[in-house]
Amino acid sequence: MLAYSLPSDISPSTYVNAASLVRIVALGLISAAAISSRLFAVINFESIIHEFDPWFNYRATKVLASEGFYEFWNWFDPTAWYPLGRVVGGTIYPGLMATSGVIYNLLHALNLPVDIRNICVLLAPGFSALTAWATYMFTKEMKDESAGLLAAAFIGIVPGYISRSVAGSYDNEAIAIFLLMFTFFAWIKALKTGSALFGTVAALFYFYMVAAWGGYAFITNMIPLHAFVLLLMGRYTSRLYVAYCSWYAIGTLSSMQVPFVGFQPVRTSEHMAALGIFGLLQIVAFAQLIRSHVSSKQFQDLLFVSVISAAGLGMAAMVLLTYKGWIAPWTGRFYSLWDTGYAKKYIPIIASVSEHQPTAWPSFFMDLHMLTFLFPFGVLALFRQLRDEHVFVIIYAVMGTYFAGVMVRLMLTLTPCVCVASAVGLSQLIDTFVDPREPDVEQEKEGGDAAPSKQAAKKEKNAAPITGVGAIDDIVSTLSGASSPEKDKSGKTKAGIFGLDTRMVVLFNTAAMLLFFVLHCTWVTSNAYSSPSVVLASTNPDGSQHIIDDFREAYYWLRMNTKEDAVVMSWWDYGYQIAGMADRVTLVDNNTWNNSTRLTAGCAAHIATVGKAMSSPEEIAYPILRKHDVNYVLVIFGGLIGYSGDDINKFLWMVRIAQGVWPDEIQEPNYFTPQGEYRVDDQASKAMRESLMYKMSYYRFAELFGGGQVMDRVRQQQLPKQSPTLDYLDEAFTSENWIVRIYQVKKEDSLGRDLKSANGFAQGKKRKRSKPPVKRRALA
Amino acid sequence: MAGPKASSTAARPASSSSAGDSSAIQSLWRTYNDTTPSRLKLVDCFLVFLMLSGIAQFLYCILVTNFPFNAFLAGFGSCVGQFVLTASLRAQVNPENRAEFKEVSPERAFADFALGSIVLHFFVFNFLG
């Protein structure tokens, strides 16, 4: 018995063709939506690189495009980390640049001379379309094509992923999520079929992922965890052996080709899980082989004991090796994921990055909207079937949720899993309610339902065409229609839904939710995630847009008005932008947090040096500046227009980082008032008022107010009417809205005096000269 | 598969004395010789050779030097990788596992094996330095 009638004169081949056409069209539309929803920033502003890190990637890509791959591979950058320089080839993941370089050369070979900047800007949207496709393939392995299309539609527009992949955000994550999903897809495929081909494909994409993003450690631990859980569940098969071993053997060897990774896969704790499971699988496989030859209780016992003891021995060996120091323990960055208080206590550089904070509840809802509550439902739906590949998504869900809760930044790795699980759950719901079969109880309903059903079916088609759900409904209904007659003949279905009205209620609600999801995603993308940090936008009272372009103004001034080899000191946030836009030598840059713990203590000390110079009085800072050949000092100051991300607000981190290296010279409590407040007004502490950062930020600031109240719009505090004076630095440039202030470091006094007394002498002399006329006038 | 042999071994007492173990190994060897197809035996010979080669390299690394560490890793990795790929091939072409590998015919398995080995050795040669 059917709730609504279905056309019966369609041949199976027509159905198959129509279904694949719908799939192709839907995937095409999803790709188009994924690309176009990422273009807000390009259309609203211009086609430029946005954040801080992408500026380095862009600069490296320019080298690759203009000088070729070998030059890029061996590139030593003398302009970064000024006295030290930076071996770029050995300290980056080159996958992103190589990808853009390949695309660049390909387009040029096709006589499409596209600027490398536009390739960099539009790489992330392009790859988001590929991510949607990879998610489709992955989810197809979990359930079916309709769930795959839903998942692709979700990940195409979900803000949690858009936030890291808008046009202009030329960061590693842009291609990494695609590689993540495709590696997982290949792994699942290899596990299902037991084919070494897919294991090899998984290894190759794993290699690409290793070359692209430091988050490859997630894959390195997810796949072994999956294999291990399958082993514990007693689901060992030869397919698992084939898939895992071919992935691990090729993947590990290939991952070591990336210079930045080097010997880490055999030396560090992050990679030991994969090695351990590899060893365990060999033992288990060997035991299985023997068991197949001799099946006696005696042997089984013997082997069981030997397998467990071998596994225990291997574990003990690893612990011992780690303990002895042959295997490096967790790096601080990973360790801070487990011990969440670790970074704040020991590595302030890691804790100072705002992305490394725990996630608040609203940001889950903002980034995922209704997927937040569909996600547990999807995971539950997966539990009820629990095939081998479902175990993977469940583990991924648990791990991903934990990590996303610990760190805002890792929301990105959770998002694909959320999309997949939600799509499985939602498509199960839709399947149930679109299925036209009714439980066989009464015959009388049959006549009444047939007439309105066609209209209703048409309505359904029109209800949700936006996310592609309409298309999925079509497929599902046609599918169930094609298969339902035989099933209905064969026997009664026990569970089911009566009537069209119940179906309509649920489906209408689902469609409405999907519609709201689309609206929410578009709104969040356009409002929250599509603003370039290089250009600040504000709206005038009449609604027109006012653009504050101080950063580029100042960087361009540096580029045009200073010597080519001038050294600019700034806080490390701006290192990449100065190198990228101003093309000047920098002392420290954003490449800190992956270096500080592992590569060189020199880099960490270097940042602390800059922190010390910024937080010390001028007399102490000046020798530091001279020792490092600093010509210009650049500070960001938002007090005039209320730009809150300025250096005074970051100042405490500078103090903390400097304190870590020179605890007896810089002390954080000195920068607070006796009441423990962080103030910049006339109650500010002495260390605060004398620090170089304070003086540089507020130098001549009071003059702007012409004797009125001097107001800092970020801190909302009134400053003293007397601006601080500078003896060792000269103001060289201040941008239109006073956001970027550049100071020139003075040369030593030619008479060998220190600059303070020289300055005082110069001023005192002037005062003496100007006094006598006054006196004379008074006399007269 | 091991059905007929199981009856003869199961008759023994379950105590794991050394005499029982040695005879168990003997019977394992006998069963293996009797039941394994010859092409699987060929594969097993190759596996044993790879294992010996890997052990030799590992001993050299421990006893003498690990100085060009990348060369050691490449050589050892090629042994291990080739070993597991061959073992995978063995599992796939084993007639006992027909039910598990429905989608992988023996010819397809060999093609997969060849491709995997080529990729593996490409990386090995690249890593030798």
Automatic annotation (TrEMBL), chain A:
<feature type="compositionally biased region" description="Basic residues">
    <location>
        <begin position="764"/>
        <end position="780"/>
    </location>
</feature>
<feature type="domain" description="Oligosaccharyl transferase STT3 N-terminal">
    <location>
        <begin position="24"/>
        <end position="421"/>
    </location>
</feature>
<feature type="transmembrane region" description="Helical">
    <location>
        <begin position="174"/>
        <end position="190"/>
    </location>
</feature>
<keyword id="KW-0812">Transmembrane</keyword>
<feature type="region of interest" description="Disordered">
    <location>
        <begin position="754"/>
        <end position="780"/>
    </location>
</feature>
<keyword id="KW-0464">Manganese</keyword>
<keyword id="KW-0479">Metal-binding</keyword>
<feature type="transmembrane region" description="Helical">
    <location>
        <begin position="390"/>
        <end position="412"/>
    </location>
</feature>
<dbReference type="Pfam" id="PF21436">
    <property type="entry name" value="STT3-PglB_core"/>
</dbReference>
<dbReference type="GO" id="GO:0008250">
    <property type="term" value="C:oligosaccharyltransferase complex"/>
</dbReference>
<protein>
    <recommendedName>
        <fullName>Dolichyl-diphosphooligosaccharide--protein glycosyltransferase subunit STT3</fullName>
        <ecNumber>2.4.99.18</ecNumber>
    </recommendedName>
</protein>
<keyword id="KW-0808">Transferase</keyword>
<feature type="transmembrane region" description="Helical">
    <location>
        <begin position="145"/>
        <end position="162"/>
    </location>
</feature>
<feature type="transmembrane region" description="Helical">
    <location>
        <begin position="272"/>
        <end position="290"/>
    </location>
</feature>
<comment type="function">
    <text>Catalytic subunit of the oligosaccharyl transferase (OST) complex that catalyzes the initial transfer of a defined glycan (Glc(3)Man(9)GlcNAc(2) in eukaryotes) from the lipid carrier dolichol-pyrophosphate to an asparagine residue within an Asn-X-Ser/Thr consensus motif in nascent polypeptide chains, the first step in protein N-glycosylation. N-glycosylation occurs cotranslationally and the complex associates with the Sec61 complex at the channel-forming translocon complex that mediates protein translocation across the endoplasmic reticulum (ER).</text>
</comment>
<feature type="transmembrane region" description="Helical">
    <location>
        <begin position="302"/>
        <end position="323"/>
    </location>
</feature>
<feature type="transmembrane region" description="Helical">
    <location>
        <begin position="364"/>
        <end position="383"/>
    </location>
</feature>
<keyword id="KW-0472">Membrane</keyword>
<feature type="domain" description="STT3/PglB/AglB core">
    <location>
        <begin position="565"/>
        <end position="593"/>
    </location>
</feature>
<keyword id="KW-0328">Glycosyltransferase</keyword>
<dbReference type="InterPro" id="IPR048999">
    <property type="entry name" value="STT3-PglB_core"/>
</dbReference>
<keyword id="KW-0460">Magnesium</keyword>
UniProtKB/TrEMBL annotation, chain B:
<comment type="subunit">
    <text>Component of the oligosaccharyltransferase (OST) complex.</text>
</comment>
<dbReference type="InterPro" id="IPR003038">
    <property type="entry name" value="DAD/Ost2"/>
</dbReference>
<dbReference type="GO" id="GO:0008250">
    <property type="term" value="C:oligosaccharyltransferase complex"/>
</dbReference>
<keyword id="KW-0472">Membrane</keyword>
<keyword id="KW-0812">Transmembrane</keyword>
<comment type="function">
    <text>Subunit of the oligosaccharyl transferase (OST) complex that catalyzes the initial transfer of a defined glycan (Glc(3)Man(9)GlcNAc(2) in eukaryotes) from the lipid carrier dolichol-pyrophosphate to an asparagine residue within an Asn-X-Ser/Thr consensus motif in nascent polypeptide chains, the first step in protein N-glycosylation. N-glycosylation occurs cotranslationally and the complex associates with the Sec61 complex at the channel-forming translocon complex that mediates protein translocation across the endoplasmic reticulum (ER). All subunits are required for a maximal enzyme activity.</text>
</comment>
<feature type="region of interest" description="Disordered">
    <location>
        <begin position="1"/>
        <end position="24"/>
    </location>
</feature>
<keyword id="KW-1133">Transmembrane helix</keyword>
<dbReference type="GO" id="GO:0006487">
    <property type="term" value="P:protein N-linked glycosylation"/>
</dbReference>
<dbReference type="Pfam" id="PF02109">
    <property type="entry name" value="DAD"/>
</dbReference>
<comment type="pathway">
    <text>Protein modification; protein glycosylation.</text>
</comment>
<feature type="transmembrane region" description="Helical">
    <location>
        <begin position="109"/>
        <end position="128"/>
    </location>
</feature>
<protein>
    <recommendedName>
        <fullName>Dolichyl-diphosphooligosaccharide--protein glycosyltransferase subunit OST2</fullName>
    </recommendedName>
</protein>
<feature type="transmembrane region" description="Helical">
    <location>
        <begin position="45"/>
        <end position="65"/>
    </location>
</feature>
<keyword id="KW-0256">Endoplasmic reticulum</keyword>
<comment type="similarity">
    <text>Belongs to the DAD/OST2 family.</text>
</comment>
